[in-house]
Amino acid sequence: MSSRVQVLVGAQWGDEGKGRVVDVLARDVDVVVRYQGGANAGHTVIADGRTHVFHLLPSGMLYPNRTCVIGSGLVIDPDQFKSELNGLDPQPESINTRLVVSYGAHIVMPYHKKLDALSEGARSQRGGSVIGTTGRGIGPCYVDKYARLGIRAEDLVSPSSLKEKLRANVDDKGKIFEKIYGEPAPDFDELYALAAKWGKMLAPYLGDSTLEIDAAYSAGKNILFEGAQGTMLDVDHGTYPFVTSSSCVAGGAAIGGAIGPGRIDKVIGVSKAYCTRVGSGPFPTEETGSVGDHLRKKGSEFGVTTGRPRRCGWLDLVALNYAVKVSGINSIVLTKLDILSGLDDIKVCVAYKMGGKEYSAFPSSATMIGQAEPVYKTLTPWKEDISGARAFGDLPEKARDYVRFIEEATSVKIGMIGVGPGREDTIITGF
Q1: In b/e form, how buried is each residue of 369-384, taking b as 16+ CB within 10 angstroms?
Q2: Cβ neighbours of 148 (radius 10 Å)
Q3: Using DSSP, how many helices (H) and how many strands (E) does the chain show?
C-alpha cells in the first residue's frame, strides 16, 4: 500500500477558496497538514449549512477519523487557536479528529502585534507605501524566527527555557519600543504569565510533526498539505515587498510541513475564475470601476481575516502560468466560476505590455510588474445561472469554452470547478 501525497497551493494573490477545496479533498485523505503562515490567512468552509472560518486549524477538522497537523512552518496565535477550537461544533473529541501541533511552531507574542502596527504606521508617516498587513504580528514573529530569537511552542511547556528566551526578547523589544517608537517596554511578568497559560492550553496537542507525518507516509496513508495565501504573496517568489512572510509555493510544504520533495505526488493549484487581492502592491488586471464593483459584490469579496474589501479584476494568465511553473502545479481547481455568469463580456489577460513590448512571461522584477499593462483577450460570456451544475456537461457551452481556454493556456487540466460556496457546489472533472 503506497501513500499518496498532495500539496494544495494558492495560484494567485490568496483568497482563492482553498478552504472549501481542502474540505472537499479531505474526504479521501487521512492526514491534513497546514505548513506555513499564521492567523493572517482565513480559510472558509461551508458545510451542512454552517460557515466555519479557519485561520490556524487545518481545514480537514470537520471530518471524523482524520489527523490534522499544524507544522513547524506556522506561527501560532494561541488565543486565536483556542477560539477556533471552541468554535467547532461538534467538538474535535466528538468527531474523533486528532490534532497535532508541532513543537517547532513559533508563537506570536503581543509585542509582535504591536510592532506590526507601529511598523505600518511608520511607513505611512514616511510617505512610503504601506504593505497592508493584517496587523496580526505575523511578519515580526517570522523576523524573530530567522533572527533565532523566537519562542516556539515547546518553550511554552518548559519554564526554564521560556524564562530565558522571554527575558532576552523583552530586553530586545524594550529598546526598540522605547528608543525608536517612544513606547513603553513590554512587561516581563505579564508576558510570562500569559505564555505559561498558553502552554497549559496547548500541551495536550503538542507533538513531533516530523515523526507524525513520516509515520503516516510509511503506513501508506494519504496526506494533503494545505498552503495559505497564494503564489504572488510568497516571500521569495511573489510581488516583493508586498508579500507575506512565508513560503506559499509548493516547496514550502517540504520545509514547513516536513515532507521530502521526492514524496510529493501531486501539486494542486487553486485559482479563482477572476482575480482578487487584499492589501497594497501591483495588481495588473485590477478593475476599479463597475466591473470590479460587480465582482466584489456578487463574489462577496471581503477579507475573511480583516473584513477589508478585496481588489478585484480579470483572470491573469501570465501570473497563473508563473504559479504553475514555480510550484510544479499539475492540476488546477477553478473556483467561483458562477460569479462570471451574466456579464456583458469576459476578459482574460494573456500578456503584459511594458515599454512598448509585449511579454508572455511574468517579470522577475517587482518594479516591472508595477508598470505592466494587461493585454486582454475577450471571450464570449454566458448568461445562465450555473450554481446548480454538478457535471461539466451541465455548464452552458460558453462556460465550458472558458474552462477549456484556461486549460489550453496553462497546459494543465482543471480537475475541479466551484460553482457556489458549499461542499455540494462542486464539479469534479479530473481528480
Answers
A1: beebebbbeebebbeb
A2: 6
A3: 13, 20
The three-state DSSP-derived secondary structure of 225-250 is EECCCCHHHCCCCCCCCCCCCCCCCC
Q: Are strands 223-226 and 266-272 parallel, antiparallel or unpaired?
A: unpaired
Tens digit of each residue's pLDDT (9 = 90 or more) over 335-369 = 999 999 999 999 999 999 998 999 999 998 888 99
d(CA 23, CA 62): 8
CA 235 to chain centre: 13
Residues identified as active-site:
15, 43
Asked if 175 and 168 count as a contact pair (C-beta separation under 8 A), the reply is no
Alpha-carbon torsion angle 317, 16, 138, 238, nearest 10: -10
Angle at the Cα of 368 (from 362 to 372), degrees rounded to 5? 75
> CA nearest 268: which of 36, 8, 29, 5?
8
Closest CA to 231 of 5, 7, 62, 9: 9
Rounded to whole angstroms, the Cα distance separating 155 from 163 reads 9
Q: Inform me whether the pLDDT recorded for 318 exceeds 60.
A: yes
Instruction: Report pTM.
Output: 0.92
CA–CA distances in Å: residue 136 to residues 40, 78, 113, 376, 415 = 6, 12, 5, 37, 34
> Which tens digit of pLDDT belongs to each residue from 116-174?
889 887 776 665 566 667 778 999 999 999 999 999 999 999 999 999 999 999 999 99
- What local confidence, expressed as pLDDT, does residue 130 receive? 61
* DSSP helix/strand/coil, 268: strand
| Mean pLDDT, residues 361-379 taken together | 92
Residues 6-35: what's their mean pLDDT? 93
Mean pLDDT of 378-407: 97
- CA atoms of 60 and 18, how far apart (whole Å): 12
**How does strand 43-47 pair with strand 426-428?**
unpaired
d(CA 201, CA 107) in angstroms, rounded, equals 13
Q: How far apart are CA 118 and CA 403, in angstroms?
A: 44
* Grid cell 527555557 in the structure block, residue: 161
CA 339, chain centre distance (Å): 21
Contacts of 289 (CB under 8 A, 6+ apart): none
Give the Cα separation of 334 and 347 in Å (integer). 16
State the Cα–Cα distance between residues 98 and 60, nearest whole angstrom: 10
As a whole number of angstroms, the distance between CA 212 and CA 350 comes to 43
